[in-house]
Every structure is written in structure tokens, then in C-alpha cells.
Structure prediction request, 260 residues.
Amino acid sequence: MSLDLPNGFDHRHESSFTDLLRRAGQMPTWDVGAIDLAGAPEATTVLALKTADGVAMVGDRRATMGNLIAHRRMDKVFPADSHSAVAIAGTAGIAMELVKLFQTELEHYEKLEGNRLSLEGKANYLGALVRNQMPLALQGMAVVPLFCGYDERDERGRIYTYDVVGGRYEEVDYAATGSGSLHAKAYLRAVFRDDLSKEEAAAAAIEAIVAASDEDTATGGPDIQRAIFPIVAVVDAGGYQEVDEAEVARISREVLERQS
Prediction:
């Protein structure tokens, strides 16, 4: 991304990319005028839970537009940096742009400071980005992300949820957001253990997505016929890693067979 900076503008010590844009007078404007909210795709259910070694994050693939399915293969889980992950719920297009800006923020900070921001610092940055898009939320286009990562200082996984005005909340064991979050959390409440392996956490998370899809039409469960499966990522001391689709497909089939 290239910036048309004013003459004499010194950006060398601006560790926040958002502040750099603001000082350069290039922050995006959020007033989009009158819009048809029914035409804006919405990302639905994402969740995260702690494992014995870190955290696991899972997102379904469905995006809705009113009572229609807008997309069946949407990615909702992304690496924020090498040791953290972010998932999106809410107005899809705005959410994906927010994730890109968040990734750029963390990369910008690391390049200027020579080390990664603390996990809590990353969570605070994301809360500020959510708060900055509040004018859009007031127009009905809210974004509510989910953030998790491996805290290299405390050597454990941590999970953070947000509200539409950027409030940040650390969760103890698991969390979910989106239209099916209530049903996903109800399922996780029954099966969560604090010693789950990565494989067990992935299975529990997919089971929670299936449980949510049974009750919430906006949540898409595993679709064997179309070969559409949730995105599953794990973060531990070794960093962010997306679970191979073939492995997710195998776990999904086993989950559906148990529940049939």
C-alpha cells in the first residue's frame, strides 16, 4: 500500500499504522449514505476454545443476505500474525477490510519496533479498530470479531470477545459470536475440558458448529455433498496453523455419523 504523504511528514517512528493514516490525512471515511442493508452479506458463526497447549478457532462457511444464502464457501478465520488468529461475524465486506487493516497494524508495529506486540496489546488494537467503525454500526452494518492467540509471555492460550462499540472482554475457556453463537456456546459448555488436545478441540468445535446449524438457519454446518467444511485453525507455541482440509473433512464426517 502506497501513501501520498505530505512534504516533510516523518513516519519513521509512527508504530501505529492507523495513527499514521490519521496524521497523513488519509483515514477512510465511513459515511456511506443510504444503503440497502438487505444487500450486504453477513458472516455468521465463529468460535474459539482453549486447548491444553493453546487455542483452536473455527468458523462456518455460510454468509447470508436477508433470508438468502449469499455465499457457501466464505473464509471467516484468518491469521492476525504468526501467533494469533481473528475471526469475523457481522457485515462481511467491512469485516474483511477490518481484518486486513488489523494484520497491517501488527506487521507495521513489528517492523518498526523489532518485536511483536503483546497479545493483550493486539487485543486492544483490535478493539480500537472496531470502535473506529462505529458510524457504520449505527447504520446497521456492525462487525463483531473474535480474537485469540498464544501468549508467549504467559505461555498459554487466550481468547477475547468484543461488542459493537469496541469493548474487549477476555474469556476463560471458550467463546463464540455470530447468529449461532448462543447454540454453539451451549454445546461447548457441555463438552469443554481444559486438557483438550488440538484434535479433540477441533472435533468439539465442529460439533458445536453442527449444533448451531441445527437451530440457526444462518449457520452452515459441514456439507458432505458439496465438500464444504468449516475452517479450523490452531495457535500454540509453534504459531498459527490451519488444519488441513482433508483432516477437517474426516472429523466432520465422524461428527455427522455420530449424530445421525
In short: The chain has a mean pLDDT of 88. Residues 118 and 151 are 7 Å apart (CA to CA). DSSP finds seven helices and 14 strands in the chain. The longest strand covers residues 156-162.
